[in-house]
Amino acid sequence: MQTITNDNSESNNVEGEHILVSLTYIGKYIGKNSEKNNGVELTRILEQWRRNNEKSDITSALIINDHYVIQNIEGSRPIINEVLGTLINEYSYFLPHVIDVEEIEVRKWDGFLIKYLTSSAQDEEYTLKSLSAGADFNPYLMKKNQITSFMEAIFEERDSQSDEVSYF
Fold it and tell me: Which CATH architecture has domain 16-161?
């Protein structure tokens, strides 16, 4: 005879829901007519991501320009695995490349942060400080530590310069 007990802490965490994971990936935007894209398609995608992240209790920091994406997402292990599957299967036009996955104790980000890189002097300064491959922003030429440092430099001023970072 088998005795069934209801231990909620174990039954609710059978998939690792209690374990926080951080995933960093890079991507190159090669959407339809990406050279002619006026930003509407990308804006729609980002808004959909924001809503999905909010529902799934995912926090995120995203850096984009006209061609490239760097994103770090944080959430429960099963949710992050689900997001990774979705990125690969449904957003293949971003050519996602995983840079780092690690378990974390505390989230680094608060909400869904976005920084759009422009040709401003401050953005060029961040890029030059973080890249050894020249002044052009191309995360495919960056090592993991460069990407991590770059993200931290971009978002470290998020509290003092809220106009630099968009909160969706």
Answer: 2-Layer Sandwich (3.30)
Residue whose entry in the numeric block shows the structure tokens 């951080």 = 22
For every residue of the chain, DSSP letters joined together read -------HHHHTTTTSTTSEEEEEEEEE---TTTTT--SHHHHHHHHHHHHHHHHTT-EEEEEE-SSEEEEEEEEEHHHHHHHHHHHHHH-GGG--EEEEEEEESS-S--SEEEEE--S-HHHHHHHHHH-SS-SS--GGGS-HHHHHHHHHHHHTTTTT-GGGSEE-
Question: Can you tell me which residue has the tokens 């890249």?
Answer: 131
Residue-wise pLDDT tens digits, 135-168: 567 889 889 999 999 898 888 865 455 444 443 3
| Mean pLDDT, the chain, whole residue set | 77
**Burial of 17 from C-beta contacts in 10 A (0-12 / 13-18 / 19+):** middle
The model's pTM: 0.76
Neighbour count for residue 146 (Cβ, 10 Å): 17
